[in-house]
Amino acid sequence: RDATGLADYAGFIDSIVAQSAERSRWQELAWRDDLTSLRNRRFFEQALHELLDRALRERLRVTVVLFDIDDFKHYNDRFGHETGDGLLREVATLLTRCSRESDFVARYGGDEFVVVLWDAEKPRVPGSQHPHDVFALADRFRTAISEHSFRCLGKQAPGPVTLSGGLACFPWDGKTAAELMRAADEALLRA
């Protein structure tokens, strides 16, 4: 009798674990961009709100950088949407490679990407600081993009792929996610 009860209990626990795993899988799918496999805007907005709450409590620095691919429509029009999709995937990979594991990179929409840098860990290079200047940060990403040979464009590439970026820092440029994104978007438009 005890063995039967334990078997039933084990079956019940297995069912709960399976349901939890399935829920986690669906949550992960809901937070991923299908095309680039980056986190999507839904995840980004929730994560940024949570991070800013933590930053306020712990006095952390948070930097938001909004990027878009210059003349992206030209790539779609000239080479087709499949090539444009390939370009988005390759840019997503490069932005991820240029970021620390604790930072997060998301596809914000269309050809826009957002990178959030924060004080989660010690700097990769001793003495390095959060960027205070859009040019210093953008140069790291720009170099990675300009030196990359985009497979999706092949030999018919019309020249180097370029990005424009806008940077905003918490708490100086905004104290809320909406204020930070507005500041980053304004900086992007100026770029």
Helix proportion of residues, in percent? 40-55%
Radius of gyration: 21 Å
Taken in chain order, the helices and strands follow as: HHEHHEEHEH
Total strand segments: 4
Strand order in the largest sheet: 2-3-1-4
The gist of it:
The chain has 191 residues and is an alpha+beta fold.
Please give a structural write-up.
The protein has six helices and four strands. It has 191 residues and is of the alpha+beta class. The N and C termini lie far apart (74 Å). The longest helix is centred in the first third of the chain and has 29 residues, at 2-30. It has helices at residues 2-30, 41-58, 72-79, 81-97, 134-146, 177-190; strands at residues 62-69, 104-109, 112-118, 163-170.
Give a quick set of tags describing it.
single chain, 191 residues, alpha+beta, 6 helices, 15% strand
